[in-house]
Design goal:
The complex is a heterodimer of chains A (469) and B (437). Chain A is α/β, with parallel strands linked by helices and 469 residues long. Chain A has 17 helices and 14 strands. Chain B has three domains: 138 residues, Nitrogenase molybdenum iron protein domain (Rossmann fold), CATH 3.40.50.1980; 109 residues, Rossmann fold (3-Layer(aba) Sandwich), CATH 3.40.50.1980; 150 residues, Nitrogenase molybdenum iron protein domain (Rossmann fold), CATH 3.40.50.1980. In chain B, helix 8 links the parallel strand 6 and strand 7. The chains are: A alpha/beta (469), B alpha/beta (437).
Chain lengths: 469, 437
């Protein structure tokens, strides 16, 4: 085993070729400083991008403070979702129950902000003191005449995947509550969160193909769009970890088939367009898709080639929340001529890791639910030149002198679609090729090396520190 | 004004957050939250954004089973793994609302762990009770600081040193400034907590498991033997570490405001002179003169400027004071902490201003729109108001997630105050040039 720090983590780390399966999808080890958050966080990241909904956190203030405007999901209109609403439970609420306060808060907030729907998230202590969210929300919904959806997201009831499910259950309640007849062949985009405006670099292609996007779940979504999502003919699932559950429910309930796709990377983006063209199977649409793919690819290829030349041969490490993004990244790095030496996720399941094992080279480390100590050692041992991950991992990489690219939900750069791939290639290149890594970490002192009193003029005394690159 | 029942856009964080900022300022200390995994991850993320440093916080990762049958097994396993993985000298356990609500007796669990586990022999374990629903991050900070001296301070030989307790959350640059001031003064002191290196570490490529720096453990033990305690930024806080040392070990305690502006910095200097019998070093007299010179230079641009100050209590009071020294007119003086002593002092410092405690940003926004605010000073979380009302915002304090330099922002002392004066003036000028925030 390549790193061994914590007893009980053995099954979660292996090198391709060790023999699968990888241990995954269980509780994080106490004391290991998992990079995972909680059930609530899973639910919150899925639902928060719904721009005109009111998101009320039923719990003490912290849970609302730390998730206020946390996603880089952008809106083309409403911005109610960028506020943070909390019942701010205090000691007395914990002792006597928070139901009354919650009911009053709902009334007040509905009156003040007139949202088309309210999501109510339960946090750890709500699960302990036993507030009946279900019935409070039902009653409030009848009284206030808007959907008020409880999200069962008590932090301790499992890992982030449970939170995804809780969010999907809430969405499932909302879907199908508004009539609509799409005018064109129609799709939903599930697991597309419009981080840094991603959606706006993807949606126009479908429109060009004569396809109507009924709803994106949940990037730049309005409540009304989600309510009529059941009228689409096909669900495209991007972030499969968070949204496959909903796609399956919609298939059962409304007979809408789903396809897993990704909008990241040239190949994946093109595959997504072809998938849709094939599904709707008109020769004209297929021709349109092919045309579009050729046109867009040709347009960005020169720039991507230029960046590829600057990064080819470098070694990348990937640590993502969900597995779908990780898989897409492997292909994108192939497109850039880079080698993936570490790949890990917070919430991957057995299928995900099998898929990952199929597409990476022998010797690549595959890791589930990593922590800083393991990441640090792996980055060092695998001689990674670049880490692609989120903010928590950014400073670990930087401190080690390793380039970093933010691919999490709080990034500010659009990476999806054809133009997005250029942005990504540029990000990877500027961080790997930055002159900051060439600055000597240790200065050569003029004092102490007694024999060398003569003044040096050039860089002959320059001691280059290794920076794993 | 209608006080909303719900909190809309919080101006405070929860208690465990405060504890981390104390534990991270102790040599070889690893913080551990007894609760669900999310608490530690969220706060790691929040602090990483602010300090631009890796911030490791362990968790007992309580699950459903732990919540039902008690979290002792998880906590013990967490402690064991932290010791094996990080080799800490100290583990600072802070509880979360989950652990408190299920009623875990953390001190008892720790005693059991220490009795059962040979690994625990060389590790000091401190536990503090910080349920998120009880109070804000400021109280969590105070409770952790008190917990440290309660657990560790031991009476032995008089040292003649002075305990300098950092009673409020300040930047690593501020802590470095205090250290330099005390060094230059030539007095023996114990500064605690000390995040100057732990949360602002130089690039080194092979970072230690726990960041270097922090208040040495021997110093914390020795706080019982100092000749006095100064709590800097302990003006409106409830009794804490300094009071404990006074009560238990008869170390006299003086609680001071943060040294912001001329008066409050003079007050710190006067106390240091009284305690040591040593005059303030000449270089600081020079610095003081430069502050006054800068205040004079900027007095007209800042005259009558209507401001909103918000954030942590001590920081807000210090900034309010320097504003009134400059002839500015604080209109809103607000904190998310429900602290009556803060409200009282704020009213004294800025009569006629709207003083708000336990405030959220929806309330601050409502006040701001009716008071022609020209400058906001506080954490970045006020940016929504600044954007909407087109008011220049000078970001100070925690959190600052959308600008660089939070760790290097020096606000304290004559020098820091001088920068603050200039930054306020420049923020106004830039706002005017742009015609907006």
């Amino acid at each position: 085993m390549i790193v061994k720090i914590f007893e009980g983590r053995e099954g979660h780390i292996q090198q391709k070729g060790d023999g699968l399966p990888l241990a995954c999808n269980n509780e994080s080890l106490a004391g290991a400083v998992s990079q995972r958050a909680c059930v609530y966080s899973g639910a919150r990241v899925v639902l928060n991008p719904i721009t005109d909904a009111l998101h009320l956190v039923h719990g003490p203030i912290g849970c609302a403070s730390y998730t206020w405007d946390i996603r880089g999901s952008t809106s083309s209109g409403p911005d109610l979702y960028r506020n943070s609403f909390s019942t701010d439970m205090k000691e007395l609420d914990v002792v006597f129950g928070g139901e009354k306060k919650l009911a009053e808060d709902l009334r007040e907030l509905a009156d003040r902000y007139h949202p088309p729907a309210i999501f109510v998230y339960s946090t750890c202590i709500v699960g302990i003191i036993g507030d009946d969210l279900q019935s409070i929300c039902r009653r409030a919904s009848e009284e206030l005449c808007i959907p008020i959806l409880p999200v069962k997201s008590e932090g301790f009831r499992g890992n982030k995947n449970e939170g995804y499910k809780a969010a999907c259950n809430a969405l499932n309640e909302l879907i199908g509550t508004r009539n609509y007849a799409p005018r064109h062949p129609s799709i939903n985009l599930l697991g597309e969160y419009n981080v840094a405006g991603d959606l706006w670099f993807v949606k126009p292609f479908f429109q060009e193909m004569g396809i109507e996007v009924v709803a994106a779940l949940t990037g730049d979504a309005r409540v009304a769009e989600i309510q009529r999502a059941h009228t689409a003919q096909l669900n495209l699932v991007q972030c499969s970890g968070s949204m496959t559950y909903l796609a399956k429910k919609m298939e059962e309930k409304y007979g809408i088939p789903y396809r897993r796709i990704s909008f990241f990377g040239l190949q994946d983006m093109s595959n997504a367009l072809s998938t849709v063209a094939e599904f709707f199977a008109s020769p004209e649409r297929k021709r349109k898709a092919e045309e579009l793919i050729l046109r867009e690819t040709a347009q960005v290829m020169p720039q991507i080639e230029a960046y590829r030349a600057k990064v080819a041969g470098k070694k990348a490490a990937i640590y993502m929340g969900g597995a779908a993004k990780a898989v897409s990244l492997v292909r994108a790095f192939q497109e850039m001529g880079m080698e993936v030496v570490i790949i890990g996720t917070q919430t991957g399941d057995r299928d995900d890791y099998q898929k990952i094992a199929c597409i990476v080279k022998d010797g690549t480390v595959i890791i589930d639910d990593a922590n800083p100590l393991e990441l640090k050692e792996l980055l060092f041992k695998q001689k990674a030149d670049l880490l692609v991950a989120g903010v928590k991992e950014r400073f670990l990489a930087y401190k080690m002198g390793i380039a970093f690219c933010d691919f999490n939900h709080d990034r500010t750069m659009n990476f999806e679609g054809y133009v997005g791939m250029v942005n990504f290639a540029r990000e990877v290149s500027i961080t790997i090729n930055s002159p900051v890594w060439q600055l000597p970490v240790k200065r050569t002192s003029r004092i102490g090396s007694a024999s060398q009193l003569s003044i040096t003029t050039g860089s002959e005394n320059y001691v280059q520190e290794p920076c794993h690159s | 004004m209608s006080k909303s029942l719900a909190t809309v856009n919080p101006c405070s964080m929860c208690m465990p957050m405060g504890s981390v900022l104390v534990f991270r300022g102790i040599e070889g200390c690893m913080p551990l939250f007894h609760g669900s995994q999310g608490c530690s991850t969220y706060m790691r993320l929040y602090l990483a954004h602010h300090f631009r440093e890796p911030v490791d916080i362990a968790s007992s990762a309580l699950s459903e089973k732990g919540a039902v049958y008690g979290g002792a097994a998880n906590l013990k396993q967490g402690l064991k793994n932290v010791i094996n993985g990080y080799h800490p000298k100290v583990i600072g356990i802070a509880t979360t609302c989950l652990a408190e609500t299920i009623g875990d007796d953390v001190p008892q669990i720790v005693r059991e762990f220490q009795a059962e586990e040979p690994l625990a022999k060389d590790v000091t374990i401190i536990s503090v009770s910080t349920p998120s629903y009880a109070a804000s991050h400021e109280v969590g900070y105070r409770v952790a600081l008190k917990g440290l001296v309660q657990t560790m301070a031991r009476k032995s030989k008089q040292s003649g040193r002075i305990n300098v307790l950092v009673g409020a959350i300040i930047s690593p640059a501020d802590v470095r400034y205090l250290r330099r001031l005390l060094d230059d003064w030539g007095l023996g002191y114990i500064l605690m907590p000390d995040i100057s290196e732990t949360l602002d570490a130089p690039l080194c490529q092979d970072p230690p498991l726990i960041p270097a720096g922090g208040t040495p453990l021997d110093d914390i033990r020795d706080t019982a033997n100092s000749k006095a305690t100064l709590t800097i930024g302990g003006w409106v806080q409830e009794p804490g570490a300094g009071d404990y040392l006074e009560r238990e070990f008869e170390v006299p305690h003086i609680a001071l405001p943060l040294p912001l502006g001329q008066e409050f910095t003079d007050r710190l200097a006067a106390n240091l002179e009284e305690l040591t019998g040593i005059s303030m070093p000449e270089s600081y007299e020079q610095e003081r003169g430069r502050l006054l010179d800068t205040m004079v230079d900027a007095h007209k641009i800042l005259a009558d400027v209507k401001t909103a100050v918000y954030g942590d209590t001590e920081m807000v009071l210090g900034i309010t004071r320097i504003m009134t020294e400059l002839g500015m007119r604080p209109q809103i003086v607000a904190s998310g902490a429900a602290n009556p002593a803060f409200a009282e002092k704020a009213k004294e410092l800025a009569p006629g201003s709207k003083v708000m405690m336990g405030a959220d940003f929806s309330q601050i926004a409502e006040e701001a729109s009716s008071r022609d605010i020209e400058l906001m000073v506080g954490p970045f979380t006020g940016r929504g108001i600044a954007r909407k009302e087109k008011i220049p915002l000078l970001r100070v304090g925690l959190p600052n997630h959308d600008r660089y330099g939070a760790s290097h922002q020096l606000l304290l002392g004559y020098e820091g105050s001088m920068y603050l004066v200039e930054e306020m003036a420049n923020a106004l000028l830039e706002g005017r040039e742009r015609g907006s925030a």
